[in-house]
Automatic annotation (TrEMBL):
Biological or metabolic pathway of the protein: Purine metabolism; IMP biosynthesis via de novo pathway; 5-amino-1-(5-phospho-D-ribosyl)imidazole from N(2)-formyl-N(1)-(5-phospho-D-ribosyl)glycinamide: step 1/2
Official protein name in the record: Phosphoribosylformylglycinamidine synthase subunit PurQ
HAMAP family in alphabetical order: PurQ (MF_00421)
Keywords carried by this UniProt record: ATP-binding, Cytoplasm, Glutamine amidotransferase, Hydrolase, Ligase, Nucleotide-binding, Purine biosynthesis
Stated role: Part of the phosphoribosylformylglycinamidine synthase complex involved in the purines biosynthetic pathway. Catalyzes the ATP-dependent conversion of formylglycinamide ribonucleotide (FGAR) and glutamine to yield formylglycinamidine ribonucleotide (FGAM) and glutamate. The FGAM synthase complex is composed of three subunits. PurQ produces an ammonia molecule by converting glutamine to glutamate. PurL transfers the ammonia molecule to FGAR to form FGAM in an ATP-dependent manner.
Binding partners and assembly: Part of the FGAM synthase complex composed of 1 PurL, 1 PurQ and 2 PurS subunits.
Documented EC number(s): 6.3.5.3, 3.5.1.2
């Protein structure tokens, strides 16, 4: 399986996402924001960072990049797309996901290991988790507060489209403690925390077993590979 990772001006975590994909067992393919070609990939990751310096709004300019027209078309046809942090912001700006992300409630940038509960394990990117599984992956954002209208929020909750929720503490003021959502089809997922930073022992969050040993993020990437194998 070939999974594309799009690099935008200001991307920070594109190489981390590529490494996570490789560790999961797929081939990462580097894609450039100015291209009009997805080069035959089977899935897409929009990585974290500060695309275009977060000018205008986080993800707003990136959502208008040439390659995003291809990503939008592919997503609407069913290609799996994962947006992480800034990538999540791009997906809302591109209207592939409902809701939006605003400045953290405390007004400060947050960087911490964050506990989550998986609320929907049926999407292309979460099917490898058990129902209500609790995980810990890093979180780092300045504009990670999830917002939506009352009607949209009720629809997302009612249709089971919240894929992850913050546990213990709501770090950024997200409505209903929402850390990630999916589209109705389940192929497009946006997640504010960073699974690509919890895929290899020695570099992930601390666990009860050992420091920096957490690898809970790897299942996001193995999930999309397993789903592709099932559907092949």
């Amino acid at each position: 399986m070939r999974i594309g990772v799009v690099t935008f001006p200001g991307s920070l975590d594109d190489r981390d996402a590529q490494r996570a994909i490789r560790l999961a067992g797929a081939e990462p393919v580097a894609l450039w924001h100015g291209e009009h070609d997805l080069h035959g990939v089977d899935a897409i990751v929009l990585p974290g960072g500060f695309s275009y310096g977060d000018y205008l709004r986080c993800g707003a300019i990136a959502s208008l990049s040439p390659i995003m027209a291809e990503v939008i078309d592919a997503a609407n046809k069913g290609m799996p797309v994962l947006g992480i942090c800034n990538g999540f912001q791009m997906l809302t700006e591109a209207h592939l996901l409902e809701g939006g992300l605003i400045r953290n409630e405390a007004g400060a940038f947050i960087c911490r290991d964050q506990r989550l509960r998986i609320e929907n394990n049926s999407t292309d990117w979460t099917n490898g988790f058990t129902d209500k599984q609790e995980i810990t992956i890093p979180l780092k954002n300045g504009e990670g507060g999830f917002i939506a209208s009352a009607d949209t929020l009720a629809r997302l909750e009612g249709e089971g489209r919240v894929i992850a929720r913050y546990l213990d503490v709501n770090p950024n003021g997200s409505l209903n403690d929402i850390a990630g959502v999916t589209n109705a089809r389940g192929n497009v997922v946006g997640l504010m925390p960073h699974p690509e930073h919890a895929v290899e022992p020695g570099f992930g969050p601390d666990t009860a077993l050992a420091m920096r040993s957490g690898v809970d993020g790897l299942a996001f990437f193995t999930s999309v590979i397993e789903r592709a194998l099932v559907n092949a």
